[in-house]
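#dry-run=false #mode=assembly
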Amino acid sequence: MAKSDKINFSTPSGFPEFLPGEKRLELYLLDTIRRVFENYGFTPIETPAVERLEVLQAKGNQGDNIIYGLNPILPPNRQAEKDKAGETGSEARALKFDQTVPLAAYIARHLNELSFPFARYQMDMVFRGERAKDGRFRQFRQCDIDVVGRRELSLLYDAQMPAIITEIFDAVNIGDFLIRINNRKILTGFFKSVGVEEEKIKSCIGIIDTLDKVGENKVKNELEKEGVLADTTQKIIYFIHIDGTVDEVLDKLKYLTTSTPEAEEFALGVTELETVICGVRNLGVSENRFCIDLSIARGLNYYTGTVYETTLIGHEALGSICSGGRYEELVGMFLDEKMPGVGISIGLTRLISRLIKAGILNTFAATPAQVMVVNMQNDLMPVYLNVSQKLRQAKINVITNFEQRPLGKQFQLAEKQGIPFCVIIGSEEATAQKASLKDLRTREQVEVALEDLAEEIKRRLA
Amino acid sequence: MAKSDKINFSTPSGFPEFLPGEKRLELYLLDTIRRVFENYGFTPIETPAVERLEVLQAKGNQGDNIIYGLNPILPPNRQAEKDKAGETGSEARALKFDQTVPLAAYIARHLNELSFPFARYQMDMVFRGERAKDGRFRQFRQCDIDVVGRRELSLLYDAQMPAIITEIFDAVNIGDFLIRINNRKILTGFFKSVGVEEEKIKSCIGIIDTLDKVGENKVKNELEKEGVLADTTQKIIYFIHIDGTVDEVLDKLKYLTTSTPEAEEFALGVTELETVICGVRNLGVSENRFCIDLSIARGLNYYTGTVYETTLIGHEALGSICSGGRYEELVGMFLDEKMPGVGISIGLTRLISRLIKAGILNTFAATPAQVMVVNMQNDLMPVYLNVSQKLRQAKINVITNFEQRPLGKQFQLAEKQGIPFCVIIGSEEATAQKASLKDLRTREQVEVALEDLAEEIKRRLA
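#status=ok
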């Protein structure tokens, strides 16, 4: 066996792990998110962590990120297989870095077994060699939903997304949030109408997208560096700052439509946005939960229509906690078929880490156990085991303490883990078919008949 | 964008993925397993998929398996960082191939933040380059529990494992199963007592462990190849075939203890086994759910005491569906501390695939949606959205069909996905605040007031 003093057993940089109380919080959030996704009829899938490298790179650019390829390490007795391992060259495989390309591959692989529109959720781990200096994770869980249609997809799917975002963040009780909605066609159309050259529009939208982070002056400079005239830049800055209530912004946009009649794409974007807003309202989303923000664009180039970002009010520095949008070309790429989709994504690992640090979310107790049956004397163990099983059958999570130690130490052990109750049975109680129930939160101790114990604990837990 | 006809978008060999109905079955099993684990006070952890290679190899032998190292693929604009990427040489990292070494590392990393005995569950994906010809998976989910003590750990933790196995497999209703219990000290002690040389005992136990697969004659041959005398082989074969009720086997073992008084390890193993069996009974596990089987040993060399295998009655060819045991040296390896542990493992991905194939488990409907609100006419969409939201608030999973298509087509779409109910609202129903509720399983259709719709659906779902 290797000597421990030579082994660095820390986690590799960027590969986080949670303590039990944090992991329990993550599971609670995952359960909540899943419940909302399923409530809207999204069905779960999970694609392998590993895909063919050519599949992962099919979208083209891997951006700024490292992709983790696989490098098979053969055991000593299998060195001869090296050439057959098929893990390199044209057979190269790598860890997925998002869930969008894998969704496209999944649909291509199972086209005839799926029903369309295909509404799926996916909460897998993804792997991205982000620059370490950004303090970003290299492995993290993303909670994604997407609806994908064949050829067409109603804009009402776009309208459902804010309803789903609202239900999730209302359920987990993290305070007020605002869903900012825009449509990329509006931006693209507006840029065209003010004379920005076609081939520069995407990079200009990318510059606009950084407004929140870098401020107005930097955006102006960057636009001018792209060759946008000062006058045009001023129009753009004015445009993306249009604000007011949802209806006021819509009215201004519609007015702009009439004043720039040649900009078809702009007008289409406005119509789409209006349809989406109408759907959001029909779905009963509170007016204070959403707004139109003409400055949001989402950096990713594949979005073609509706885009969303979600900001936590008072914690804007956290950035968007849930984002997404509509895309046309992505999912059908392996099938040469038009498959429009719309989706949103929550970067859960990062979100949890940041919300814990900001004091917005509290970690859970270190164990799901609600009761510790303490060990007063080893010869009563059959009683302790029997009582533990009865409580478990009543759906109470129980730890039986097998080690006989001073009672105070056993209470401490329970308390350290956040277990609220101890059940204490000595020989007198055992004979009388009773137990002492200690509530470690209040230090209160009561005597309860064994047959009533489960009910009493449940009453106090409720 | 790359042309689809050049890209092989199939999953890499050995990296499986489920269709939605299979994934939903997996989630149901995961939920059930987690509920039982938590009922016994096990707390969740998840270690990163990626660990330092030296950590993964600390146990020594990687067996017959390929370990998947990471090979970072830098984007074009970051080639200069190659030397700093730190993913090779002493900084090499790889995908975890089990959850035992990562558990040891996790405990070493968080020693002072954890409470002991530390009872944790873990249901992560692991990655193993198994030989493709065996039809095994290279990525699969393992559901593990382990309890780890510092210096000591009560044998009653060993006794809890069969109770947990029983609750899980009873809950998922896969038919009769049998938990076979043994203790490696009994085997080791017996081998010593019949004169097998100390350094050959581990390999002899390995040979015994193959009895189920290769049969008695092959075991005899292999033992004799190891240099075990024919007479001794005969004693071993006789010994591992000792059977009868649990009490009969225990009696025979105790008799053998008195007749071989010099074999301390044998006697210790028998005492441990008796203590475990006594605990299993006190925990209320049915007598028909467990037996003593002196032929099971678990191939893994790190087991030192109790060992378990679980067989599905009538489907013995599936092999063990849940296995585990007690170990002494494994978890403390990074800390040079004695940390005994006991655990069990369910290889869930493989189990599901095989149970579906064997017809023991049925896949779920393709969607969690229980109701489809159909689209009779687009102008009633506000009503459809409103009704859908009301049903969702009543915890019914709903898909609203946005595409206006012939009613029969919409029923077909619902039926194909296994959605039991359609809600039909035309303009007359809308005016009368009513809906037609169609049960696609019985083809029955009833008229229900909108205010009673949720209750009526819940009544029919129950």
